[in-house]
Amino acid sequence: MRLSFGLEARQVQVQKLAPRMIQSMEILQLPLQELQERIEQELAENPLLEMLDRDPSLPDEQVERELPNEKDVDDKPIVVDEAHNNADDFERLLNLDREVPDYFDESRRSSNRMEEDSDRAHDVISNVADRPESLQDHLLHQLGEMDLSLELMQMAERIISTLDPLDGGYFRSSLRDLLPIDATKEQIALAERALALIQQLDPPGIGARDLRECLLLQLTPTMFMYEELKTLITSHLEDLRDNRLPLIQKSTGYSIDRIQKAWSELRKLNPKPASGFSEAFVPNVTPDVAVVRGEDGQYLVQVDESRTPTLHISKYYRERLASGTATPEEREYIKRKINAAQWLIESIEQRRSTLTKVSQAIVDHQTKFLDEGPEHIEPLKMQQIADKVGVHVTTVSRAVDDKFIQTPRGIFPLKRFFVGGTQTAEGDDVAWDIIRIRLQEIVDKENKQAPLSDDDLVEELKKQGLNVARRTVTKYRQKMGIPSSRQRRDWSKT
Question: Which among 64, 69, 408, 482 is most buried, taking Cβ atoms within 10 Å?
């Protein structure tokens, strides 16, 4: 083998994605709200791209979509010399001795455009949420009403800063971590006093170091079954979790009925006292696709285009490019911006076409789901839709990613309709969702004095023609939050 340095020419085949294809894939993957933001960004960056003012009562097919003439714009992207300052070129364009187009004159904007801009600004202001009171603010406000020394107040503030509402408001740190390495006994005692002070504040249970302490902090001597609750929390939390009521009965001498009553009172306590101060993020879901039933009873898919503006390329710049009066620098700038605008318009149209075909194929496969409910969903893989539509499976994945569909049965993510499955004893395919529904039905109807084990659940599913492994039953039972047979047992009648 000879090693050497040198240059050589070789012919190899390399697959590369054109910029237009990359943009088309990016646009396809965007949900409706992000697509709107992308269009607004492009409108701000590209002066040749405009929104078409039209009568909203006209259907989309009657709207003229203006695209550049082939003789004006080359098929390939324009390469602009980076030595030119494009910003300066554009400034020169705007300062030409010419009549300013209507859309640069604010006074000539249509009444519809002005009304849309006003509504958009009003919506932005209306949707600004008030800042809720944080957990730290709530606790510090209570401390401010107390007569505390400066040292105690500072230590309490330091502890409060470590409380996380997402963690329920527990004190997970160590007091020694908040003190100097060479802390004195007086400083340690001060920290313990500060923590005890915080644990007396609202909400009850705040600042607890574990669940047991959190629940004990919420007890008051006037509560119903106070002594029983204190005993259960102090010594038998794990036994309650595992439903070992006979063991608690033997240890405490309480009857099963008495333990269950105390357990019912225990459930009224809050294991996460600060949960009310954590902002619950509820995403704003805007369906990209809607399903309607046609006159023939078939389900038809409609992509929502009412929220996306109709785009076209500035007629003024196209005419200037065709007139031959533009300088070479202006011509290069206009052609590059026209290419960018045309790519965007075509990508949006391609997104609409692909999303329509993919969604219609999904709806056609899941007709039983729409007719009879979720328990009749059919097994479906993305490859099946890709084969039916005639695209690559990654295109289907991008088309359904983070998008929602509005159906007569509610709004669902498009990915909801892709489910795995297994075969029944008769050889029919059945979705895992159906197995989960049947599993829940069996558990709901079982005898709670003798609940079914996982092996028993497997046998019950087999009686319904569903062959499922025991490990699969265990996995879905745990995912569904169904306790084990021992934890589901009702001891009240034993």
Answer: 482
**Residue carrying structure tokens 């052609």:** 335
Spatial neighbors of 457 by CB under 8 A, at least 6 apart, are 439, 442, 443, 473, 477
Which of 217, 246, 268 is the C-terminal boundary of a domain?
A: 268
Check whether 64 has a pLDDT greater than 50: no
Q: Which of 407, 359, 371, 366 is nearest to 297 (CA)?
A: 371
Place of tokens 């704003």: 284
- How would you classify residue 427: left for phi > 0, otherwise alpha for psi between -120 and 50, otherwise beta? left
Q: How many domains does the chain have?
A: 3
Under a CB-based contact definition with an 8 Å cutoff, are residues 56 and 48 in contact? Answer: no
Higher per-residue pLDDT: 21 or 373? 373
CATH of the domain at 463: 1.10.10.60
Question: Which of 298, 322, 347 is the last residue before a domain boundary?
Answer: 347
- Within 10 angstroms of residue 465's Cβ, the number of other Cβ atoms is 13
* Burial label, 18 (beta-carbon count in 10 A; 0-12, 13-18, 19+): exposed
Average pLDDT over residues 409-430: 76
Strands 404-407 and 289-293, bridge-based pairing: parallel
Domain that holds residue 42: 19-53+66-103+306-347
Query: What is d(CA 362, CA 30) in angstroms, rounded to the nearest whole number?
Result: 19
Q: Does residue 300 belong to any structural domain of this protein?
A: no
330 vs 340: CA distance, rounded Å: 15
CB-based contact 445:437 (threshold 8 Å): no
